[in-house]
Amino acid sequence: MCRPIRERGVEGLCQRCASTVPDLATPWERFRANLVDVGVLLIPSGLISVIALYLPRNFVGIASLPASLALLAGIVGQLIAHVRWGQSIGKRSVGIRVVVHDGQPAELWRIILLRNAVPSIASAFCRPLTLIDVLFIFGAEHRCLHDYLAGTRVVKAAAEANATPPAQ
Known about the structure:
By secondary structure, this protein is mainly alpha-helical. Helices cover about 60% and strands about 5% of the residues. It is built from 8 helices and 2 strands, in the order H-H-H-H-E-H-H-H-E-H.
């Protein structure tokens, strides 16, 4: 019979299941992955927007279309990365991934809706929520507020590859 244990990051799991849950990602690893993800989304469209500043006035409006398309391409690229690898481009480059409580990969809907859309919409109405969300990472479990909302955690992907699944 399995008995739940009470250790940071694996609360409520039995010892056998807890041994399959990889180490939590550090706040620094999550920060670096976020920088890459933001860069993938914003750098191409930002460069096009800067170039548009040097165009004649009657072409500036036309430049917003390529900038929007570049942003859309970044979003599509991130979605493809999630579907293919279960990680964003930034998380893959740093070697971390998003999982649910038992260590299984988080579903795409959970990442899009609960980890991204809901916090973004809430932050649009109350800007301090963005800071509050991020400051939660300095807690014992290194989880942001959106991680608690989605029931996810960010773990080291390399450790996950070495973990053995529990026996059935």
